[in-house]
């Protein structure tokens, strides 16, 4: 009897021991999986981009302001996003809408005050939303006091905050400029008898990162914003900060190709690593670089071992489909969809082991995604908007979603050059004109691709100017605001807006959509973007018809027993034939 009891005690003990050991095993396993995945808040976040000039105006001057964003905090929260990226809000003459900063530690008065900014950050944080600031470090405004001092004399302590070519050495070696009528990157300054460098407009002088004092001033300024509680930086044109100051002469093929020469300066990564040591490593920040270039170049910015930044943009896909050697001129024959898909697959694989990418189809430098990559006709605008949203939120990269796309805003398509505001468009128009080019053709192309298409004011409701302002908006509101607006989207359960919220929820609830392995399938399909996302036991299939016709897809996967997680039609296709712009995600 006693012996029997002892045996059963031993059995019970063995049972507990084995359960304990196997639990520990599972814990170890998931730990290693977790380690391999390297989870981070900024990988799991969806970032909503706000162009403050165009979001909401509260004082009737026709320009959006910080109080306007504050008045819409609950709307932004309702989108289910995790972070916002604000385009520059610093003091600026606004010749390039804030990408020409005259004071890095003050707010542009038309946007509001520093108190407004602090309230805005608090308002976001109270709602669990992080705030990413735009940081323009390649250049400042010619109104900045550094530059105003520098142009007075070669002996000014700020002269070396910029790059100069002394006129006694003759003409400077040619450098390209993107926002210059002559496409010429040097501008003569009489008082110092020298030329200053500007890769962008002549009112955007390039900062001299060779100068350690300049770098320390920049780091101090960045720490000021971090100490205020901002959660990250989107680093504008960062790839251009280092220059070869022996100023070699350049072959012509470098012009217009940022990646080949201009984005690959000799000390670029020394500077970023120093910035990481001096600023970034001291805070828990999301950092994303405008990292122009091919994969090996871009990977350097985000390889964790190098201790630089977190995320990088891929410009290759967004710049696809334009004619070579012409400014953003859409190819009349359309774009090679199969090639375009392969670009996404290539950039996904670039970050499998190291680094992390971004996913976006629009921003303030792009036209509206609906017009460019979808179809803005009344028949297809809703289907194609939802399809593009499905795409953005189902890729393995941090999604950056542009304000207004959640309600399906489309290009405004100006007819005349006088209607435009953007320095890029205006200088490129001047270049075409100077060369005796076809201006009518140019303006037709710009209806598809120019930046102002993506900068028109947010459409809130059916009141005058879409509820953006009671004054005269700085850029006209798209006339379709009477039907395309937030109120209309809110009240219709089948709207583009509510689809965005559903898709956003799906990404939140399915980690596989964030971290899961991406595999492109049916790669040569000329109409459908098809891929799987896999993580552990979970497997999802995403099918996206990018065309306005029924399209077949050949996945080789049996979808008859799959569960439909989301679909932009009332019923999802199950026979491998997708309706126009159909999007569907299946779970296995
Ligand atoms: O853009 C940098 C950049 O690479 C752009 O030249 C981009 O290629 C172009 O805008 C595409 O049309 C940043 C900002 O995003 C942009 O708004 C600014 O105008 C530019 O820097 C200068 O600061």
Calculate the terminal CA-CA distance, rounded to whole Å: 53 Å
Give the strand content: 5-15%
Rg is 26 Å
Shape: globular
Q: What ligands can be seen in this structure? A: 1-O-alpha-D-glucopyranosyl-D-fructose
Q: Mean of residue pLDDT?
A: 93
| Low-confidence regions | 1-5, 7-35
H/I helix tally: 18
Helix content: 25-40%
- Helix and strand content put the structural class at alpha/beta
Beta strand count: 20
- How do the strands of the widest beta sheet line up side by side? 11-10-9-5-2-1-13-12
- Could you describe the largest sheet, including whether it forms a barrel? 8 strands, parallel
Describe this structure in words.
- This protein is an alpha/beta fold.
- Helices cover 32% and strands 15% of the residues.
- It is built from 18 helices and 20 strands.
- The strands form 5 sheets. The protein has an 8-stranded parallel β-sheet. Strands 14-15-16-20-18 form a 5-stranded antiparallel β-sheet.
- Strand 15 and strand 16 form a beta hairpin.
- Helix 13 (381-392) runs parallel beside helix 17 and helix 14 (423-434) runs antiparallel to helix 15 (439-449).
- The protein is globular.
- Mean pLDDT is 93; it is low at 1-5 and 7-35.
- The structure holds 1-O-alpha-D-glucopyranosyl-D-fructose.
- The site of 1-O-alpha-D-glucopyranosyl-D-fructose has 12 residues, from loops.
